[in-house]
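Propose amino acids for all 174 sites.
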C-alpha cells in the first residue's frame, strides 16, 4: 500500500471516491482543492493505492514537518471493512509521528446518517485516535475533533483550517 500525490492518471478515481464518500455540504469544489494543493505549501491531495489500484483518497494540510490535519480521508466503498483504512492510517501515523488531527461528524444527534457517524467515530477510536472533547462548527456541520497525540492542539487545528480557507469555531463538548 502506498499514499502518493494525485497524478493525471489518478484524478478521476480521486474525484469518484470523494464524491461518493462525502455529503454535499462537506464537499468543496474539486478545482479549488486542486488549486490549493498546487499553491499552498504543505497542502496535499493524495490517493491511497494497493497494487497500482486507487482504493482511497486523502486531502491534508501539514502542520510543520511531523503533524497534519486530515480534511478528507475515505476508502472506496468496494473495499471498505477489509482493513485497508486501518493500514492507511498506520502509514499516516508513521509519516506524522507528532500527531494527526481530523474531524468526525457529531454523534448523538438523531442525524439521518447516525449509524454511519457512530461507525466512523468507532473506527477512528480503534485506530488510536482520541477525542479532544472539542467540537468544531464549520462547512454547515458539527464535528468531533480527534487526534493521535496530545501534542496536537486546537490552535494548530485552527491554523490548518485557516490555511485551507475554512472558517471554523471550536467549543467544548458537553
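Proposal:
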Amino acid at each position: 500500500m502506498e499514499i502518493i500525490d494525485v497524478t493525471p492518471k489518478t484524478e478521476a478515481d480521486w474525484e469518484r471516491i470523494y464524491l461518493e464518500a462525502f455529503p454535499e455540504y462537506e464537499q468543496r469544489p474539486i478545482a479549488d482543492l486542486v488549486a490549493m494543493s498546487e499553491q499552498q505549501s504543505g497542502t496535499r491531495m493524495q490517493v491511497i493505492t494497493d497494487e497500482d489500484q486507487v482504493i482511497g483518497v486523502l486531502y491534508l494540510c501539514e502542520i510543520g514537518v511531523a503533524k497534519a490535519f486530515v480534511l478528507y480521508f475515505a476508502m472506496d466503498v468496494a473495499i471498505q471493512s477489509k482493513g485497508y483504512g486501518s493500514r492507511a492510517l498506520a502509514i499516516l501515523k508513521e509519516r506524522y509521528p507528532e500527531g494527526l488531527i481530523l474531524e468526525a461528524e457529531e454523534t448523538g444527534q438523531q442525524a439521518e446518517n447516525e449509524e454511519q457517524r457512530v461507525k466512523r467515530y468507532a473506527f477512528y477510536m480503534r485506530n488510536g485516535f482520541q477525542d479532544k472533547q472539542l467540537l468544531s462548527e464549520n462547512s454547515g456541520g458539527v464535528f468531533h475533533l480527534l487526534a493521535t497525540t496530545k501534542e496536537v492542539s486546537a490552535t494548530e487545528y485552527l491554523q490548518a483550517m485557516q490555511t485551507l480557507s475554512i472558517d471554523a469555531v471550536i467549543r467544548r463538548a458537553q
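The mean pLDDT is 93. The longest helix spans residues 114-126.
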